[in-house]
């Protein structure tokens, strides 16, 4: 039998080396899908039009591993095994891997990575809109070391610009769109004697005032009002007493939104800058969201408002809380915010034209997340690793057991609050027993090893997906600051 | 292959958030069961006000070493010193005022606290900590 098969294989190969349809596996769906993918890849043509609009969408902390978890979760929510699911950005024609390190940090932070993407230069961890010659926390070192962001550059070129985030709008990634600060934590004040720069919230208001930014929406209300001022939801601010940047913005003609109703009523005709501050601190996780817009809703509104500019627009969108849920070691919230990001990507794509709009989807860094094996198809990405069924496709429905006789989840973290080591027993530990119901609970923390109060970032690569003008410049493995240079080239190409 | 329009439709039609099951009173209840999604008090919380209940959760690192209360959170309280200047308290927490001085339990070890449920804002006179839900005369294990 083997001989007969080998003989027919030789015939097939010798007679039709290049004709795939003659191979014995040619009728297999995987094979025909692969052939269709080849056809699509061969038909790809680079788009060398000038980009009228550019949207960069950053899912904070959404490295390749975290994105994998969201892909499976979304697919499983829709009734399939998960692996075969395709997230919106994964349909984009071009991608590259991105090296995310900061100049002084193997494990990067969002301030340094945001600055790399928005200004074209890598810098130190913890600083925003300054080059590597500035030192974190040293105000005097900002002199001569500020850099301009894509928002600054695109605004000078006559485009409208915006920034949207589910984190505080003064947090590291959105701040990299408009601020120059030697410390990401200078959100509402600078240290005494620091005269060389303003705090980050003040810089945002200045950008709204001088027309660099037309739309800014996210959380972080507390950084715009004084300690003596109570906001619409009963929370006090962080600024010096009497300071109210929200009132300042309103006085200069900005429209202010703070909840779903005021968001829904925002002018979409470009007649006024829009300042949306929907929470005192970060906006809510998607799993807990109530009374405030989703990331997709904010993205759609920003695109509509900015599209009034006939020269086009530049928009930075951040899914800020994918990172925070990872820091919590709580994958259930990571993937729900991951799906909310995917919805924002799909909507941005829907509202724009590939011919004139470059859309870039990426992450700023990865986390210390990892995945166990050997799980069968359809194992719940949040739950227990089920065995492989050798006679079928779907998993065996029997949880695999480790050497300690206990089941384990598909995903885990290397460090964080889910550590199995206990301080009260001299950092010795044993893995707790675990049911599928416990593991898939929305508040569950995946097991971790190293006991840290917050799970950490990692230096692992992230992906960048792109479509539109000059998206084909994303190829291979690139430094993170390269993303800026693609955007800049696409916007300025003759 | 799913296109972007299908994706949008599927996402909006999918219930991405599992409804929170409300535990029977006999079993310990979770902190989150005391709140609705908009952070108003749940029917369960209103029905149990003034009664002795048992709640399961995690002890956040205490604000004061020798204090009379600690904060119970629904999941271990994670603090990223590199990313944040201060602890970000979740909205859905509860204060546990113990009968006597309490022993600190690691922040990532699940505990059960029993006491009398109190609802409504109260500012702790010593620390200024504002709680909306409390257990008083509490004990925990």
From TrEMBL, chain A:
An MF annotation (GO) of this entry: alkaline phosphatase activity
Species for this entry: Actibacterium lipolyticum
| CC cofactor | Zn(2+); Mg(2+)
| Catalytic residues (positions) | 110 (phosphoserine intermediate)
**Which family is annotated?**
Belongs to the alkaline phosphatase family.
Pfam families with a match to the protein in the record: Alk_phosphatase
| Class of the enzyme per the UniProt entry, highest EC level | hydrolase
User: What gene does this protein come from?
Assistant: phoA
Q: Does the keyword Metal-binding apply?
A: yes
This protein's name: Alkaline phosphatase 4
Query: Top-down, what is the taxonomic lineage of the species of origin?
Result: Bacteria, Pseudomonadati, Pseudomonadota, Alphaproteobacteria, Rhodobacterales
Keywords from the UniProt entry: Hydrolase, Magnesium, Metal-binding, Phosphoprotein, Signal, Zinc
Kindly state what the record says about how the cofactor is bound.
Binds 2 Zn(2+) ions.
Residues the entry annotates as binding Mg(2+): 60, 171, 173, 318
Q: Which PANTHER family match?
A: ALKALINE PHOSPHATASE (PTHR11596:SF5)
Which EC number(s) does the record attach to this protein? Answer: 3.1.3.1
Signal peptide location: 1-20
Positions that bind Zn(2+): 60, 323, 327, 364-365, 457
Automatic annotation (TrEMBL), chain B:
PROSITE patterns per UniProt: TAT
Quote the InterPro entries the UniProt record gives.
TAT_signal
Q: What is this protein called?
A: DUF3299 domain-containing protein
Lineage of the species this protein comes from? Bacteria, Pseudomonadati, Pseudomonadota, Alphaproteobacteria, Rhodobacterales
């Amino acid at each position: 039998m083997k001989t007969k098969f080998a003989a027919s294989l030789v015939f097939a190969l010798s007679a039709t080396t290049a004709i795939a349809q003659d191979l014995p596996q040619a009728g297999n769906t995987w094979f025909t899908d692969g052939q269709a993918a080849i056809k699509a890849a061969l038909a790809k043509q680079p788009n060398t039009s000038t980009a009228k609009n550019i949207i960069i969408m950053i899912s904070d902390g959404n490295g390749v591993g975290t994105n994998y978890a969201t892909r499976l979760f979304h697919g499983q929510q829709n009734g399939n095994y998960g692996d075969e699911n395709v997230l919106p950005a994964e349909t984009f024609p071009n991608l590259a891997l991105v090296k995310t390190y900061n100049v002084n940090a193997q494990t990067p932070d969002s301030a340094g990575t945001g600055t790399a993407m928005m200004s074209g230069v890598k810098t130190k961890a913890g600083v925003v809109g300054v080059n590597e010659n500035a030192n974190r926390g040293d105000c005097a070192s900002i002199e001569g070391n500020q850099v301009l962001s894509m928002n600054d550059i695109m605004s000078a070129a006559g485009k409208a610009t915006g920034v949207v985030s589910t984190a505080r709008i003064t947090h590291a990634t959105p701040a990299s769109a408009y601020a120059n600060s030697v410390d990401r934590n200078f959100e509402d004040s600078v240290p005494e004697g620091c005269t060389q720069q303003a705090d980050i919230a003040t810089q945002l208001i200045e950008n709204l005032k001088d027309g660099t930014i037309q739309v800014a929406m996210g959380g972080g209300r507390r950084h715009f009002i004084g300690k003596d001022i109570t906001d619409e939801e009963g929370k006090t601010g962080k600024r010096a007493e009497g300071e109210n940047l929200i009132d300042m913005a309103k006085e200069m003609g900005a429209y202010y939104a703070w909840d779903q109703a005021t968001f829904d009523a925002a002018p979409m005709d470009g007649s006024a800058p829009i300042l949306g501050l929907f929470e005192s601190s970060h906006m809510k996780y998607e799993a807990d969201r109530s009374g405030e817009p989703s990331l997709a809703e904010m993205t759609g509104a920003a695109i509509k408002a900015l599209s009034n500019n006939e020269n086009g627009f530049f928009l930075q969108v951040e899914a800020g809380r994918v990172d925070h849920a990872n820091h919590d070691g709580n994958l259930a919230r990571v993937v729900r915010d991951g799906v909310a990001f995917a919805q924002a990507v799909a909507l941005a794509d829907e509202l724009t034209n590939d011919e004139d709009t470059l859309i870039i989807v990426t992450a700023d860094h990865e986390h210390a997340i990892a995945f166990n094996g050997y799980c069968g198809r359809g194992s719940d990405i949040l739950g227990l690793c089920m065995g492989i069924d050798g006679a079928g496709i779907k998993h065996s429905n029997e949880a695999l057991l480790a050497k300690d006789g206990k089941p384990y989840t598909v995903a885990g973290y290397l460090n964080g609050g889910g550590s199995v080591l206990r301080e009260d027993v001299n950092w010795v530990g044993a893995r707790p027993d675990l049911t599928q119901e416990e593991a898939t609970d929305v508040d569950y923390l995946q097991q971790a090893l190293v006991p840290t109060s917050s799970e950490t970032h990692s230096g692992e690569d992230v992906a960048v997906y792109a479509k539109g003008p000059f998206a084909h410049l994303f190829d291979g493995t690139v430094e993170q600051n390269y993303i800026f240079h693609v955007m800049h080239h696409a916007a300025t190409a003759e | 292959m799913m296109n972007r329009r299908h994706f949008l439709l599927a996402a909006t039609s999918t219930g991405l958030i599992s409804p929170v099951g409300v535990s029977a009173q006999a079993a310990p209840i979770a902190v989150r069961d005391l709140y609705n999604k908009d952070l108003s008090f749940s029917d369960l919380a209103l029905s149990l006000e003034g009664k002795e209940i048992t709640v399961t959760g995690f002890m956040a690192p205490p604000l004061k070493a020798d204090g009379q209360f600690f904060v119970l959170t629904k999941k271990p309280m994670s603090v990223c010193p590199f990313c944040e200047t201060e602890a970000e308290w979740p909205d859905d927490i509860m204060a546990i005022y113990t009968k006597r001085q309490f022993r600190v339990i690691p922040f990532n070890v699940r505990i059960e606290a029993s006491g009398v449920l109190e609802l409504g804002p109260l500012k702790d006179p010593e620390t200024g900590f504002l709680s909306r839900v409390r257990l008083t005369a509490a004990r925990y294990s």
